[in-house]
Amino acid sequence: MTATRNSSLSRRIGLWALALGLSLASAASQAAPGGEESRTNRAFSYQNDKLPEGPWSVHLVKIDRDNTDYELHSMLANGAVTGMTTLSEQVKALPPALGRPMAAINGDFYFTSPRAYNGDPQGLQIIEGELVSGPTEHACFWIDSARQPKTGLVQSLFRATWPHGSTTPLGLNEERTGDGAVLYTPRMGSTTGTKSGGREFVLEAVETNKWSPLRVGVKIKARVREIREAGDTALTADIMVLSLGPQLLVDAPIVKVGDELQLSTATVPDLEGTEMAIGGGPRLVVDGKPMSGWKSPNQRHPRTALGWNDDFIFLMSVDGRQAGHSVGMSFQEMADYFIKTGCTHAVNLDGGGSASMWLLGQVISSPSEGQERPVANGLVVLKKPKREVPQQN
Fold first, then answer.
1. 43-74: burial string, b at 16+ Cβ within 10 Å, e else
2. Are residue 309 and residue 209 in the same domain, yes or no?
3. Mapping DSSP to helix (H, G, I), strand (E, B) and coil, where does residue 352 land?
4. Between 2-31 and 36-43, two packed helices, what is the crossing angle to 10 degrees?
5. Mean pLDDT of all residues in the chain?
6. Structural domains of the chain, count
7. How many other C-beta atoms are found inside a 10 Å radius of the C-beta of residue 391?
8. N or C: which end of the chain has fewer CB within 10 A?
9. Which phi and psi (to 5°) does residue 307 adopt?
10. Is 222 left (phi over 0), alpha (psi -120 to 50) or beta?
């Protein structure tokens, strides 16, 4: 009991210090209008909205869309599709060259079995332009090549075109079923994780400038370096592996070492040029109106979500399953909250025990399990480093 009280006291002190720091920054911006603190204050802010009708404790980060110093990036646990780490650990692992992490929330739902694919994100993910996970029937969030936030269903048209012209639909960095075909990139991990019984084509680049990292909305040529009848092929930085399930081998095309094939990562809508994307769902608000038809629309749980309008992007985490503090929100309640905040669009992310928000060095939300849960991926707000202007002699 003593350890629990001490931990709770430490957390209260930490939150008080953080709130004081944000208050001082706000005061500084008011004392020096037009200065950097003022711009920073408009570009990035945090509030803890405590509403008695739940009761609810809502953590809200607001980012000014016009300020290009701040960017949203997606993160991946351990830098690989498989495995999970806490949100704090994902932030800590970010390369310093990307900028200063300001705030983060957990991201997509994920698979927890079998072990070889534990932590595989459920849907689309793009990290700094690299396609690491393909879309499914669930909603996605992305920022397009024109820096516009988007949400919706994305259809995968991923295909392999064989030397003789036939095509095979592809999954990406996921469990391969007996009748499926999956393309594995080095982002998967050290091996494909597949079982024996299928066939795996080890592929190398034909045009090295288009090979790596794999991007969405492109067509690339690949050459067969090796053909393996066993699974669990090792993945290295210079190859990809195309794995066919045993049921596909009945009508599999005849391919030999040295043959070339084409890989396509096309989608509908076309996401070519997209630098950041993450899966989630369902959508909550579209064009200023709440969606409908949600599964279990009235169940209250801890939630993570994001919304936006023409001026701002909002990252939200709602504490839940904590009587007297915050009971969590339903989809309808979240949609209503986003609309009152002024959002015209909003989408749900993973919730429950995964729901958490990190802010300026620590977790600011109150996770329902009493501590952070390891998750597959997340979203982080980065303040980009300032570029030094070369001095002229």
1. bbbbebeeeeebebbbbbbbbbbeeebbbbbb
2. no
3. helix
4. 120
5. 90
6. 3
7. 5
8. C
9. -145, 170
10. beta
* pLDDT for residue 41: 64
Between 17 and 198, the more confident residue is: 198
Question: How many other C-beta atoms can be found within 10 angstroms of the C-beta atom of residue 365?
Answer: 26
21: pLDDT strictly greater than 50:
no
Report whether pLDDT(156) > 50.
yes
C-beta separation of 281 from 142 below 8 A: no
Q: For the whole model, what pTM was predicted?
A: 0.89
Secondary structure (DSSP) of 21-34: HHHHHHHHHHHSTT
In a domain, 217, yes or no: yes
Among the candidates 229, 245, 265, a domain finishes at 265
Same domain for 354 and 259, yes or no, is: no
Residue 133 domain-assigned? Answer: yes
Joined together, the tokens standing for residue 211 give: 């090979």
Which residue from 106, 53, 107 is spatially nearest to 364, judged by alpha carbons? 106
Same domain, 279 and 258: no
Between CA 269 and CA 118 the distance in angstroms is: 29
- How buried is 207 (Cβ within 10 angstroms: 0-12 exposed, 13-18 middle, 19+ buried)? exposed
Span of 2-11, 168-177, 301-310 with lowest mean pLDDT: 2-11
The boundaries of the domain holding residue 135 are 43-154+272-383
Band of residue 35 on the pLDDT scale cut at 50, 70, 90: very low
Evaluate whether residue 388 is within a structural domain: no
Query: What tokens appear for 112 in the block?
Result: 């927890």
Nearest-angstrom CA–CA distance, 81 and 219? 22
Inside any domain, residue 249:
yes
Q: What CA–CA distance (Å, rounded) separates 362 from 14?
A: 8
Segment 202-235, tens digit of pLDDT = 999 999 999 999 999 999 999 999 999 999 999 9
Structure confidence at residue 391 as a pLDDT band (50, 70, 90)? low
Together in a domain, 92 and 168: no
- Whether residues 278 and 143 fall in one domain: yes
